[in-house]
Amino acid sequence: MKRLFLFLLLPAYLLSAQNHPIRKQVEQLIKTHRYDQAEKILLRHKDKPDALYYLAVVDLVQGKLDKAVDRAEEGLKKDTNKARFYELLGDIYAVKAQNSGMLSLIFTVGKIKKNWQKAIALDSTRLSAYQKLFSFYLMAPGFAGGDKDEAFKLAQKVLKINPAVGQTMLAQYYQKEKQSDKAEQAFTKAIKLAPDSVNIVKEAAYFYLTQKKIKKARQLFDRILTLKPKDPFSYDALSDWYFKTGKKDSAIIVLDKALKIDSLNQQILFKKARFLADLGRYDESRALCNRLLKQQMFFALRKQILGFLERIKDK
Known about the structure:
Blueprint: H1 11-16, H2 23-31, H3 35-43, H4 49-62, H5 65-78, H6 82-98, H7 102-122, H8 127-139, H9 148-161, H10 163-176, H11 180-193, H12 198-210, H13 214-227, H14 232-244, H15 248-261, H16 266-278, H17 282-293, H18 299-311
Helix pairs in contact: 2-3, 3-4, 4-5, 4-6, 5-6, 6-7, 7-8, 8-9, 8-10, 9-10, 10-11, 10-12, 11-12, 12-13, 13-14, 14-15, 15-16, 16-17
């Protein structure tokens, strides 16, 4: 399940989908890794559902997972918009599962699925919860609740709500099943339905890169850049094309363009450190990681950086 919940490496993702009075201020603080300041502001409104939602997110980012669950459950009791809290609880339990021993994992995974299912039951158009539950079914091992048939059923259901997203989910399903022709057909339909959707184009671009259809992949990575030229993650995605095609020095140059847009982006900085190590520039890689570790950050990212440093310590 290691790669199942990578969306949680972007705490602001949890915030940006919401639309509440304190969202902008808190989101900016989290984006710039000022979690303590965000918490101080939120505690002034700790009895309000909106504040409890964001407090749970801040606790999640800091690795206070039991506290995050408590905040989310308290907010669930007070809020009329319960779907967002059920989805958040699923997210928290997903992170708990990634950081649990096998025995704890068995008891945790059921709560992931149950909470996302409740979010969907309360809000049948909540695409983010559908996508998370779909990924869970598709990618989790069977003993942990994975079920590819259920994943396929969810994709079919989403087709009726949002055909472009549904086709993308079908493409991911077929890709997992190693039916690349059907996956390509579904991606083609999805892009035709939503040609300006960066998320859909990006999924297709990585599919073609995995299939070693280098020219087609590059066309789609370039389209991402055209659609969002000021988004650092547009360059971040393009760097993968350069790296996977053996142009590793160019990959770092492209990442530097991303960092000119957002110099504080810890995910992209860590990616640059990994690329540097791959090129044998270990001293630069270690120095970059050590600078990152001096900052506040999502606790799971910190663990990744520490693990990476351990792997290259003798290089």
